[in-house]
Automatic annotation (TrEMBL):
Keyword field contains Ligase: no
SUPFAM superfamilies hit by this protein: PLP-dependent transferases
Organism of derivation: Ancylobacter defluvii
UniProt superkingdom: Bacteria
CDD domains registered for this protein in UniProt: OAT_like
The protein, known as: Aspartate aminotransferase family protein
Length: 453
């Protein structure tokens, strides 16, 4: 079959054969999808030649930017040498060996082993099995419950979707028993009248302790959380939140899982979000930035104290055909080499992170914006009809979608979560591109404001 060339033909073919993730495919087909044909640096080009500044790094993953020949070459070389072999049944291969050792070097000191997967969702399903296996081996099989948070996103497989706290997903899902959701640290949207961010952060963290007590510590296997909730709306927690959670996890006999699928690999200005917030996880979930999205790969780092128990248990009956796929591992190694050589994590902490934040924060003065948080290379704009009263729009999501569509028209990819616009640009964004990003975001706010008047 020869591929049609025009945008209209491509759209028709897509509409006929493609069911899109997280989309109303019927509505999308009526409108026609945007066909992205190439990308370079932080810029995307569609089939009509329009260019967009990718404020979302694809889906929070293209940390080193597009067009890195070095990663393409590494993958191509690996595909020629050993395109596939598995890591089951007493076999391994050099890319998996090298990457596992590299990850042990980059992650906090308690981590020396990784379980490879193909995605963040598979990693979180692995977490469910690992933590339950851990407590079984420790002869505490009643410890099964995993505590998570409302609006968390941990993936789309049945297990991961249940760990997540997204109501629209739960409404379409097969519930698995043993997952309990507590409040998210979303001060702007959920604090009581007069409650300071610090008071709110502490109260929200203490919901973990209260839930452990209410359900019984002998039933709780683990607590899972993203350092900054990403898909839930880039919820940067108040300063009091993580220290209190860390205290609770230290004092209670539960495992703590840090889902670093978004926050890992430099996004918060350290290699991992747990380092930014001073927490000490037992399991660390990774995907996305590990390869900058060039190849699908995920993994779960397992702390030594958990590994010691698992190794006593013999076979772990779990694994994926593509666990540690050689070409994906080669992509990750090349990607991490770029990150280290170009000091991208340091750049987020000391250069582009603070530069972008200073400019992004000025958007908080816009009449449509309630708050404009940013940490590292991840930020949000809460849209509100009433700044002072912290009120929400009556029809949740309508203004967010309107603004998101203006953003595309203005050549900037932002995402809307309810009425919150979010960004997570590539870590290689230049100062000039940061200025451009903020100018386009400001125009988007102005266009939306005019439309709403
Ligand atoms: N965990 C977090 C925090 C995520 O943001 C995502 C995806 O956005 C996932 C897990 C799922 O990852 P994947 O889409 O690779 O399955």
């Amino acid at each position: 079959m020869t591929l049609p060339k025009t945008t209209a033909e491509l759209r028709a073919l897509d509409a006929a054969h493609h069911l899109h993730p997280f989309s109303d495919t019927k509505a999308l087909n009526a409108e026609g999808s945007r066909v992205i044909v190439k990308a370079d640096g932080v810029w995307l080009t569609d089939s009509d030649g329009n260019r967009y500044l990718d404020g979302m790094s694809g889906l929070w993953c293209v940390n080193v930017g597009y067009g890195r020949e070095e990663i393409a070459d590494a993958v191509s070389k690996q595909l020629r040498e050993l395109p596939y072999y598995n890591t089951f049944f007493k076999t391994t291969h050099t890319p998996a060996i090298e990457l596992a050792a590299k990850l042990a070097e980059l992650t906090p000191p308690q981590f020396n082993r990784v379980f490879f997967t193909g995605s963040g969702s598979e990693s979180n399903d692995t977490v469910i099995r690992l933590v339950r296996r851990y407590w079984d081996i420790k002869e505490k099989p009643e410890k099964k419950v995993i505590i998570s948070r409302r609006n968390a996103y941990h993936g789309s497989t049945v297990g991961a979707a249940n760990l997540g706290g997204m109501a629209p997903m739960h409404a379409q899902n097969v519930a698995i028993p043993g997952v309990v959701h507590i409040a998210q640290p979303y001060w702007w949207g959920e604090a009581r009248q007069g409650e300071t961010p610090d008071e709110f952060g502490l109260r929200t963290a203490q919901a973990l302790e209260a839930t452990i007590d209410a359900l019984g510590e002998d039933r709780i296997a683990a607590f899972i959380a993203e350092p900054i909730q990403g898909a839930g709306g880039v919820i940067v927690p108040p300063a009091t939140y993580w220290p209190e959670i860390a205290r609770i996890c230290r004092e209670r006999d539960i495992l703590f899982v840090s889902d670093e699928v978004i926050c890992g690999f430099g996004r918060t200005g350290k290699w991992f979000g747990c380092e930014t917030f001073g927490t000490h996880p037992d399991l660390l979930v990774m995907a996305k930035g590990i390869t900058s999205g060039y190849m699908p790969l995920g993994g779960v780092m397992v702390a030594d104290r958990v590994v010691d128990v698992l190794l006593e248990g013999g076979d772990f009956n779990h694994g994926y055909t593509y666990s540690g796929h050689p070409a994906a591992c080669a992509a990750a190694l090349a990607n991490l080499a770029i990150m280290q050589r170009e000091k991208l994590v340091e750049r987020v902490a000391d250069d582009i992170g603070p530069y972008l934040k200073a400019r992004w924060s000025t958007l908080a003065e816009h009449p449509l914006v309630g708050e404009a948080p940013m940490l590292g290379m991840v930020g949000a704009l809460e849209l509100t009809p009433d700044k002072a009263g912290r009120r929400k729009f009556p029809e949740v999501g309508k203004v967010g979608t309107l603004a998101r569509d203006f953003s595309f028209k203005n050549g900037l990819v932002m995402r809307a979560v309810r009425d919150r616009l979010i960004i997570a640009p590539p870590l290689v964004l230049s100062h000039g591109e940061a200025d451009e990003l903020v100018a386009r975001a400001r125009k988007t706010l102005d266009d939306s404001w005019t439309e709403l008047k």
